[in-house]
Amino acid sequence: MVSERSDGHIPLAVKILIAGGFGVGKTTLVSAVSEIRPLQTEEVLTNAGVGIDDVGGVEGKRTTTVAMDFGRISISDDIVLYLFGTPGQDRFWFLWDELALGALGAVVLADTRRLTDCFPSVDYFEGRGTPFLVAVNCFDGVQKHSAEAIAKALDLDPEVPVVLCDARDRRSVKDVLIALVEHVMTLKHVPA
Ligand SMILES: Nc1nc2c(ncn2[C@@H]2O[C@H](COP(=O)(O)OP(=O)(O)OP(=O)(O)O)[C@@H](O)[C@H]2O)c(=O)[nH]1
Ligand SMILES: [Mg+2]
């Protein structure tokens, strides 16, 4: 809920989606930046998911999001972002259309070790015409690639921003969200 301040000023509430492949750090990102205790819908990965859930590359992962993550962050006095993290696994695709309703923009989180996992999210937002950027979550010990190289590998339209981030770091995540809002404003020609 957007709360009115004592001076009567009500900030603009904006819905943002945090998408990307399985285990790429979406829940981590929402938790790192949220000012309220984030809502999480994590369930333990069990043997029932063997052969269904692709844990290749994230073998240490113990839980997965089964509905959504939810958090809130004020990026200025005037704008409050409501963050909706999507479930990463294919079997939860049926939730996406509901989650995407009314979203102003999206962050597609990517892991360069499994870059192709973000293709479905990129295709989805391109198809819907939802403005998005690609944020590369730089995991420890993983070879760094330039934003240009990643944009080329993903064959993105030239106007789609690519930024590098650390999903565990509040400042870094906030910078990603500000970059997204600026991108949306550019596309919609909203004066800053
Ligand atoms: N080293 C490192 N580990 C990370 C980073 N981001 C996430 N992790 C770890 O990677 C694992 C997956 O993170 P999650 O945030 O659950 O990923 P997710 O995208 O929400 O996963 P699903 O909801 O199952 O698709 C967790 O064990 C995190 O602690 C990061 O930037 N660096
Ligand atoms: Mg998650």
Automatic annotation (TrEMBL):
Pfam families, sorted: ATP_bind_1
Keyword annotations: ATP-binding, GTP-binding, Hydrolase, Nucleotide-binding
Keyword Zinc on entry: no
GO MF, one annotated term: hydrolase activity
Signal peptide: none
CDD domains membership: Ras_like_GTPase
InterPro entries: Gliding_Motility_GTPase, Gpn, P-loop_NTPase
SUPFAM superfamilies hit by this protein: P-loop containing nucleoside triphosphate hydrolases
Coiled-coil portions: none
Keyword Metal-binding: no
Superkingdom of this protein's organism: Bacteria
UniProt-listed Gene3D superfamilies: P-loop containing nucleotide triphosphate hydrolases (3.40.50.300)
Record family assignment: Belongs to the GPN-loop GTPase family.
PANTHER family: ATP/GTP-BINDING PROTEIN-RELATED, GLIDING MOTILITY PROTEIN MGLA
Protein's name according to its UniProt entry: ATP-binding protein
Lineage: Bacteria, Bacillati, Actinomycetota, Actinomycetes, Micromonosporales
